């Protein structure tokens, strides 16, 4: 078994010169007779010509199948973690397939509502929810608020007052208390969240979780329906989730609650040879741990997958602009995007593959470093890529498995406009997020002659 922490630190398996394996490509990916990649029935290189680059391409059938897989694994209440990738089209798709949505800010809440998502299918997260965010959630009657701090309990108490009313609406508002179980998931330290030293939730060992439960139960207008725990992201060992359940069980059972959410964080393969469990295996491990710990079938066990739903469905298309040979050192291949559309390599040392969609089955013997166009030496897309020998300026180069935390974490660094996002299905492509223009970069600027200057 490969060490996930080492993979995240760029110490994974040796790069392969073989074609990118099928498991890293979207569900409907196929190679035509000319060796060109097609997704959703469409030629990938032609998508780059039609919509420009950089371009995020999502396989809509893949997205839908992953949503259905999550629903089948965990049942009613399983929520898509929108932080992985959110736009109105994605929100609507997830709800159409039977999922709730996990939103962690007022902005994510706003997009979900704009997509027509019913408030009762929303779960509001966040370690520092503002009074305004909480007030809106109470007014709307969101499905769940996940309580994360004592300050938040105080804010909720002030908003509810003694009557337990929000405006004309009688609550109770269903809430979960987020517990940090003291389990350190085997993943990058930046995305671990279940250990005692965490900005999230209430510590179990310290007694904070017990105090939070008592304070929530004492508030008129709140209904404590369950507990929530999230141990981290890009977790490859389902045993880590089972361990969290075992630790939580002794605290959970005496409370008489009907719901336990194990959060998200299931890992996905990004590079050749990287193993990862399925959502069904994840759910089976969690339910097995619940049964072993005496948590009965009457308890609704839910989860919040994000990366596991959208990562593989998406790929990024770039245009090669420069090939710079440094004899005896390395070859740099510069593309028209970079850390502004995928900051994960610079943040976490994350590994990716690269290939040419015009020759999807070609061997990739040439070692290169794929870099972006930003004014940073750390602007690396694929640190140790393998590509065909004939890669040249003007080629479309693809990085697969970029559906999660690519567009979601995109920026305008160096004033680079963010890419467009396209969904493809059954031979049709639709733009779900338009490409930013240069004028968009000025949209928020306030000049000296503009009205409203402070």
UniProtKB/TrEMBL annotation:
EC annotation from Swiss-Prot or TrEMBL: 4.1.1.20
PROSITE patterns documented for this protein: ODR_DC_2_1
Binding site residues for substrate: 307, 344, 348, 376, 405
Sites of N6-(pyridoxal phosphate)lysine modification: 83
Region (Disordered): 1-20
Annotated Orn/DAP/Arg decarboxylase 2 N-terminal domain residues: 62-311
UniProt cofactor(s): pyridoxal 5'-phosphate
Keywords: Amino-acid biosynthesis, Decarboxylase, Lyase, Lysine biosynthesis, Pyridoxal phosphate
Binding site for pyridoxal 5'-phosphate: 265, 304-307, 405
Recorded GO MF terms: diaminopimelate decarboxylase activity
Stretches assigned to the Orn/DAP/Arg decarboxylase 2 C-terminal domain: 56-403
Catalytic activity: meso-2,6-diaminopimelate + H(+) = L-lysine + CO2
Pathway(s) the chain acts in: Amino-acid biosynthesis; L-lysine biosynthesis via DAP pathway; L-lysine from DL-2,6-diaminopimelate: step 1/1
Superkingdom field: Bacteria
Family annotation (HAMAP family): LysA
UniProt function note: Specifically catalyzes the decarboxylation of meso-diaminopimelate (meso-DAP) to L-lysine.
Similarity-based family: Belongs to the Orn/Lys/Arg decarboxylase class-II family. LysA subfamily.
Subunit: Homodimer.
Protein name: Diaminopimelate decarboxylase
Species of the source: Aciditerrimonas ferrireducens
């Amino acid at each position: 078994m490969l060490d996930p922490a080492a993979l995240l630190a760029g110490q994974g398996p040796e790069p392969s010169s073989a074609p990118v394996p099928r498991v890293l490509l979207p569900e409907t990916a196929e190679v035509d007779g000319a060796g060109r990649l097609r997704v959703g029935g469409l030629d990938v290189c032609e998508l780059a010509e039609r919509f420009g680059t950089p371009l995020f391409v999502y396989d809509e059938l893949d997205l839908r199948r992953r949503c259905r897989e999550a629903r089948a694994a965990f049942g009613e209440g399983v929520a898509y973690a929108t932080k992985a990738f959110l736009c109105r089209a994605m929100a609507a798709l997830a709800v159409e397939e039977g999922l709730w949505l996990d939103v962690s800010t007022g902005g994510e809440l706003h997009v979900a509502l704009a997509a027509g998502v019913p408030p009762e299918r929303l779960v509001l997260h966040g370690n520092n929810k503002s009074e305004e965010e909480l007030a809106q959630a109470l007014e709307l009657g969101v499905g769940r608020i996940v309580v994360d701090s004592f300050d938040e309990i105080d804010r909720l108490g002030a908003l509810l007052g003694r009557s337990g009313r929000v405006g004309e609406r009688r609550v109770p508002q269903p809430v979960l208390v987020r517990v940090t179980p003291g389990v350190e998931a085997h993943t990058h330290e930046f995305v671990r969240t279940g250990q005692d030293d965490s900005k999230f939730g209430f510590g179990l060992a310290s007694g904070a979780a017990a105090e939070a439960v008592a304070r929530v139960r004492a508030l008129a207008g709140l209904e404590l329906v369950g507990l929530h725990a999230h141990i981290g992201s890009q977790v490859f060992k389902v045993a880590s989730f089972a361990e969290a359940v075992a630790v939580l069980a002794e605290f959970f059972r005496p409370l008489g609650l009907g719901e336990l959410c194990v959060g998200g964080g299931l890992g996905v393969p990004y590079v050749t040879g990287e193993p990862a469990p399925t959502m069904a295996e994840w759910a089976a491990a969690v339910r097995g741990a619940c049964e072993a710990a005496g948590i009965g079938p009457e308890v609704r066990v839910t989860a919040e997958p994000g990366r596991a739903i959208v990562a593989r469905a998406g790929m990024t298309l770039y245009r090669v602009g420069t090939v710079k040979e440094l004899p005896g050192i390395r070859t740099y291949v510069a593309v028209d995007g970079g850390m502004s559309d995928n900051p994960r390599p610079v943040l976490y040392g994350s590994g990716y593959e690269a290939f040419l969609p015009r020759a999807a089955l070609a061997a990739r013997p040439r070692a290169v470093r794929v870099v972006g166009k930003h004014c940073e030496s750390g602007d690396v897309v694929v640190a140790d890529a393998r590509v065909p020998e004939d890669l040249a300026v003007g080629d479309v180069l693809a990085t697969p498995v970029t559906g999660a935390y690519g567009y979601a974490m995109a920026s305008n660094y160096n004033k680079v406009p963010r890419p467009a996002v396209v969904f493809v299905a059954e031979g049709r492509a639709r733009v779900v997020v338009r490409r930013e223009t240069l004028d968009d970069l000025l949209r928020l600027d306030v000049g000296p002659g503009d009205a409203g200057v402070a």
